[in-house]
Design brief:
Length: 89
């Protein structure tokens, strides 16, 4: 018999795939409490997704954040933004 402490928490990718499958099948989804907590944290992180310009300001090495946004910072910020957006590489 499976006990609570032995249960493995599904990965975010696994949860996302199951939710997408339920959507495609037009099925209602019920989440276990521990899965609901993971989904709540993921939704909260998604809702606070920084903009590309926010990321540029964080990653720029200059003492003053680059005014016109230097190319390496914009490039890195774009890649980070794509990851936040869930784009596959
Ligand atoms: Zn910069």
């Amino acid at each position: 018999m499976e006990t609570a402490h032995k249960r493995r928490r599904p990965s975010l990718d696994t949860i996302a795939r199951r939710l997408e499958a339920a959507f495609r099948a037009d099925r209602t989804v019920t989440l276990k409490p521990e899965t609901a907590l993971v989904v709540a944290a993921a939704v909260r992180a998604f809702a606070t997704q920084p903009t590309r310009d926010d990321i540029v300001k964080l990653v720029c090495d200059r003492k003053e954040p680059c005014e016109s946004f230097c190319y390496p910072c914009v490039s890195l910020a774009n890649r980070i933004s794509m990851l936040f957006g869930g784009e596959q590489r």
